[in-house]
Amino acid sequence: MAAKGNAEWQGDLKDGSGTFTAGDGISGEYSYRSRFEDGPGANPEQLIAAAHSSCFSMALSAALGENGTPAESVKTDASVQLRLVDDAPTITRIDLTTVGVVPGIDEAEFVKLANEAKAGCPVSKALAGVPEINLEASLQS
Predict the structure, then answer these.
(1) 12, 23, 26, 113: which is deepest, by most CB within 10 A?
(2) pLDDT value of residue 14
């Protein structure tokens, strides 16, 4: 089954605005100000952050289950940085921070599985062109 989303932009770049939908239940508005300044609304990088953190959390949960140490929870935050590179807006870095509640595993094994999940997550693979994808993984203390 293909995942679907759509967007429409109206007007010029700086004064226009857009709307988007993702699947059946996610929708929002975006603008130049919400993307490049500190204006209200969403932006594509936030959607990428949500997609990456949710995909990674699922991949890590699967790896933990296969390891015989199923997670009670895996919470991941993602930060996507958009910078100008050669005068073009470019995603230059993604930082993933994940915290797991996982009985029966030590920190080193958790970090190892988290790194493997990062490499195998379909969204991580799709974002392979991003120069820097960092991961900070820890168990909840």
Answers:
(1) 113
(2) 94
